[in-house]
Task: structure prediction
Amino acid sequence: MEIPAINLKAIVLVHWLLTVWGCMAWLPPSYAWGNFTMLGVGVWAIAHRDSIDAVVMFLLGMVVSVMTDIIHFGIFYPTAEALVDRRDTFRFSVGMAILSLLLKPVSCFFVYQMYRERGGEYNVNFGFPTVTRNRDAYQSIDQQDQSPSAAANPFNQGEGKPARSY
Result:
């Protein structure tokens, strides 16, 4: 089964529209700033078709915005529901914000596919030691091709040279 190609422009446009509609009635400016910043990075990814960095930043922005959206909904929904006088607008705004949140994991999947198409690899190194299967630099301890004097003198000090004193 082949994954359908979704245009990055369509992803950015859909999320922009849902974010605008989600901000109509109840969400704070921090929701708008976070999502529109992420969409701005998406526009950067559209403009630079060969840039892997732009797609990675857009993907990470989408993942982070999923978490911040959940936090915004949890904090601001209960207080906004009691204070709203335009019930229909509030419900529409909530529905669009939740729809945007539900579409973000699907969008992340398609953006990750675009990342792979642009030549990106999932090589994240946090500085921890890793185990690799590359045996090119492997040297057997059973090799006997070293001279006996080199084996007897492991610190490679010359025979006639005095030891350094520090």
Q: What stands out?
A: The chain has five helices and no strands. The longest helix spans residues 52-83. The CA atoms of residues 123 and 152 lie 42 Å apart.
